[in-house]
Amino acid sequence: MDFETRAIHEGQEPDPATGAVTVPIYQTSTYVQEAVGEHKGFDYSRTANPTRRALEICLASLESAEYGFAFSSGMGATTTLMHLVSPGERIVAVNDVYGGTYRLLSKVYRPKGYDIEFVPHDEVAAAIDDRTRLVWVETPTNPLLNLVDIRAVSDAARAAGAVVAVDNTFATPYLQRPLELGADIVVHSTTKYLGGHSDLVGGFACTNDPTIAERLAFLQNSLGAVPGPFDAWLVLRGLKTLALRMRKHSENARAVAEFLDGHPAVERVLYPGLPSHPGHELAARQMADFGGMVSFLAPSAEEAAALVARTEIWKLAESLGGVESLIEVPAQMTHASTADAPFATPPNLVRLSVGIESADDLVADLESALVRSAARA
Ligand SMILES: Cc1ncc(COP(=O)(O)O)c(C=O)c1O
Question: Residue 166 and residue 186: Cα distance in Å, rounded?
Fold first, then answer.
């Protein structure tokens, strides 16, 4: 079945008890047993819950994965994955990662003795050596929208015996499926495009490797960073419209990037869909479209801060991937935790999460905010 059909039906048979077409929210912590150990496959909701199970089956299918695991947040998924490696082992990570991932790796795991090296997006494959156990990739990266070649990194990792995890939050499985390109694990913040409506916090990880899957099932239950049934249900509902939304996010982002490109009050636009982007060809190869995230450099940090306070439709807020358009200054907001990192988030960088409103309205709102900032400068 095609992606759009699986997004609506996979793991979501009508409820056997009532015929309900929509998977019910099984808001229960425990399940009755006929006799000790005799039950219908569910004994405690940290271990398994039918609503969460439906989400895990559906989203794993969208990522071309055999095994899926839902978590309480993207960081909950990342924390759980970090338990696949041990202190002393080497981890190579792309340096331009979500600020919270940088904070977790550098301030929580590095002090415990994990040997973590952050490298530029185009040096990840070359940095993998025989000591490397885990490779952490984000592509497109947050917030600089750099591209990492998933196939090249996966080939290098396989030769070295390392596992590759790809944070696919920005692209979503509709635009990019890392397991098909050779990666071992895909991780998500379902808070973003998968939920799609800025009304939940959640995470996800999936794989085709039965050994990794067995360990992840054990870790999911042991560490306990699981989503509640209602949040799992909200993500499941979000998935049903993922394809439609990603098409519109990409279309709107293209219109916004083209408008910003060459605007006198904009220094540079970072959008993989622009032919001038250094990762454009790679993005065209490994993604079905270029996604809904656009970053650009304002003339100064002051201008960036002033601009984001002047838009009306674009709301000044952290996060991304919802139907509504958001604007932010990563250096002071989502990526403030990278302030002491050896790589810098430019202080004049503005990040846009382009929503699915009318593209004309979005461009007009940006235009009027830019005109006012140019007049003041
Ligand atoms: C690319 C990326 N990965 C992971 C996360 C963490 O997800 P969560 O906020 O759901 O813990 C985020 C959050 O912004 C993100 O942007």
Answer: 5
Q: Ligand 1 pocket, 191 CB below 6 A?
A: yes
Neighbours of 87 (CB within 10 A): 11
For the chain, the C-alpha Rg in angstroms (whole number) is: 21
- Show the CA angle centred on residue 356, arms to residues 322 and 252, nearest 5°: 120
**Which pLDDT does position 106 carry in this prediction?**
96
pLDDT tens for 64-74 read 999 999 999 99
Residue 195 in contact with ligand 1 by CB distance below 6 A: no
- Stated as kind and residue range, the H or E segment containing 119 is strand 115-119
96 lines ligand 1 (CB under 6 A): no
Kindly report the pTM of this predicted structure: 0.97
- Do 296 and 267 touch, CB atoms closer than 8 A? yes
Tell me the C-alpha distance between 287 and 114, whole Å: 32
Q: Give the 3-state secondary structure percentages of the chain, helix then strand then coil, rounded to 5.
A: 40, 15, 45
Atom of ligand 1 nearest to the CA of 191: 10
Atom of ligand 1 nearest to the CA of 142: 1
Please check the confidence at residue 296 and state whether its pLDDT lies above 90.
yes
> What are the CA-CA distances from residue 263 to residues 294, 305, 371 (Å)?
15, 18, 10
CA nearest to 124, candidates 101, 145, 148: 148
Q: What is the pLDDT of residue 66?
A: 98
For residue 12, pLDDT beyond 70: yes
Residue 26 Cα distances to 7, 13, 33, 230, 322, angstroms? 20, 15, 16, 8, 25
- H or E segment and range at residue 154: helix 150-160
Nearest Cα residue to 340 out of 111, 102, 146, 145: 102
